[in-house]
């Protein structure tokens, strides 16, 4: 992230007149990866939803200029990653990215190994169980199992949640080395703007819970009427840090139930996952 | 994607269903020569495309081939881009999590961030979640293959596949895989439900990929499918997708969603006309109605 920000600054500081023949190649290179980065980020503002967004909404969510949103949108539509909505004005996520996601998941060695272990927990407690890895300042679910009766929580494989606002993200940040934790907290603080202090304070409260009990809890923060309990874990060899959570819609169970049953069972699930994937090359996750 | 036929596991039909990679019987219609999978109908002029973005996505697309791990020189060969450009792109894509790098192999593979390019929106969209259980029941009750497909450029792409526990029928395509729109009943069902302008626009772009007589035949079949859909809301075809394969396809149009097609397929001998008309056809339409779609 910081490297990319550096590139951007460098490009901006280059006066147009000074961009002579010699500099042209490297400058063009930086500008090139910059526009790619922006296109990739524009895909993220859809937040895994099929809902069409207007041009104004894309400008608002991405923070890019109207002109660059137009150009990026036109490119992404031409490449099939975005589609014009039936109204011809708004755009929605196209089907192109589905193939890449599908390929990533079919390559991943975590998918199949983790499913039975997670499904067992999901069935036993009738909750959803998710396994997520970090993607910048978000957590992306790479496996997600629903209990038999639950179909309401609108999350699934490939969805992402902000690291700062979800218990699974907080558990992940907590599990990092002190330096890395500081780096992430700094990024979150900066990204949250005026809410930075509050957001980080809430995260630190979760760290307190994790220090004391090894798990943390969030209720009604990211999605209303839902609660989630999360634990950090590291899978594979060399160990890759991730987060594991269980979540459900409805009222929070009482503290005792969480402390005596859910949390220990979730930690046991995490241990089973670690054991199952102990020998697996984590570069193949 | 490994659509290659694998030896079936006779003991475990239930597990097989979950692993769409394990395909039993490949019935994929052949691509016409010169056909590019996912080729877009080109809604924007070439000049509007930002080249570096196109190149970045071309690097990602190169991983859709058979090899999981690719080095910079492999990517250069596959994309036709200069090596320096490729290494700059792979560096950026790796820093952002779209690619992963293995020091040991000195190669790249897809990273978790590619899931943010629309996978969730397509696969876990509410309609697919809802459809999954209904489709599976339809598949199990009738011993047929059931799928939900949409359009990607000039191809049909599968969002969800359900295999019946008791039957061998499958189309040999995994979720996220492609089928040319022009030559399959699935594509005809989709074309039938589009607005005339859009249909003609797509047909104009498909035309160059086909020989003249072949094209006339496809147009005839499309017209027939359109007529069937107008009459009974789904179209039925035998032998167009693979020998001895019968396909029922019904367009599915939901508010705020791209048009889709709900289909069943199975061996022709087990799908008699009477059985289709009295049982499977109405059940297919019932599933469609449950998903909240009119005609």
TrEMBL record, chain B:
Residues 113-295 form the IclR-ED domain. Residues 50-112 form the HTH iclR-type domain. Keywords: DNA-binding, Transcription, Transcription regulation. One of its GO terms (biological process) is negative regulation of DNA-templated transcription. InterPro entries: GAF-like_dom_sf, HTH_MetabolicPath_Reg, Tscrpt_reg_IclR_C, Tscrpt_reg_IclR_N, WH-like_DNA-bd_sf, WH_DNA-bd_sf. It holds the Pfam family IclR_C. GO terms for molecular function: DNA binding; DNA-binding transcription factor activity. This is IclR family transcriptional regulator. It comes from Herbaspirillum frisingense GSF30. The lineage of its organism: Bacteria, Pseudomonadati, Pseudomonadota, Betaproteobacteria, Burkholderiales.
